[in-house]
Amino acid sequence: MTIIQIIPFVISAVALLLSLYTYFRHDAKIKKQNALINQFQLERFKKETDSEKKAIIEANVVKSEKGRRIIKVYNKGKATARNVIVTFPGETNLIIPDYPSSIDIRPQNSIEIIAFAYEGSSGNTLKIDFEWQDDFRLDNKDSQTLQL
Length: 148
Fold this sequence. Notes:
By secondary structure, the protein is of the alpha+beta class. It has one helix at residues 3-53; strands at 57-63, 68-75, 81-87, 94-95, 103-105, 110-117, 125-133, 140-147.
């Protein structure tokens, strides 16, 4: 074999080796990206299923006539809030004649708590604590300060 016969063989072998190297390198990158995409999709699916199990409790105050306030406690989550307990810690300037006990609030629904402000009361904020159970956790707690 002469050198002229060996050169095309060497060129072909180098081209084949470069092609194989490029193929395996590209394949490794694709597999790594697929693994990352799968992990991302699993995390997103877990977040979605977790949000389906959560109840989110919040409140707002609606002013009515002559010192009457309606405190709307609502569930803006996607799961039923069970055994919701609403408390008003500290000094309140409200009289609540019908204090709610433990109650369930379905998703996108609310309850109303009627309250009356003391005559001449100077406090203009109200702190509310919430405790509830949902399908995600059994000991949810939150607090909110509302403008009266």
